Amino acid sequence: MKTLTTHCLFAVAALVAAAGSASAQNYKAEIPMAFRAGNKVMEPGSYDLKVVSQYTGHDYILIYNRTTASTAMLLPISGPDAPKAWTKAGNPLISFTCAGHACTLRRFWDGRDSATYEFPAHKLPKAEVDRVAIVTVAVTKAD
User: Fold this and answer.
1) How would residue 86 be classed by pLDDT, with cut points 50, 70 and 90?
2) Domain-located, residue 80
3) Does residue 11 belong to any structural domain of this protein?
4) Which of 18, 77, 106, 133 has the largest CB neighbor count within 10 A?
């Protein structure tokens, strides 16, 4: 019994250490249209975005709609460098790829690093590709 208790204490200590080594950056955004984040459809509204950096080096992003209280968690991949217009402005940005009224979250830039976060998305049928537009929404750094 004493050995089991000792193992449990070490496991709890490891979990606390892992949780303590993650850092987060918070952002706020007003998103005026419905969009797909991963496999989830998110409604227009006020959003909190939290970039959580794990001690393993893998980041994930939590997206929380303050109006509907819906949440999505995304595992981004390292994307290309931010476009020059984004870096010149220096403000965090998110971009969506839209075909008609259907928009999908595609990239996020934190306003500092050269690279962007990119999110996987379903490929559009070739017939819709020529109707794709990029909608950029400003994001503000939260306190």
Assistant:
1) confident
2) yes
3) no
4) 106
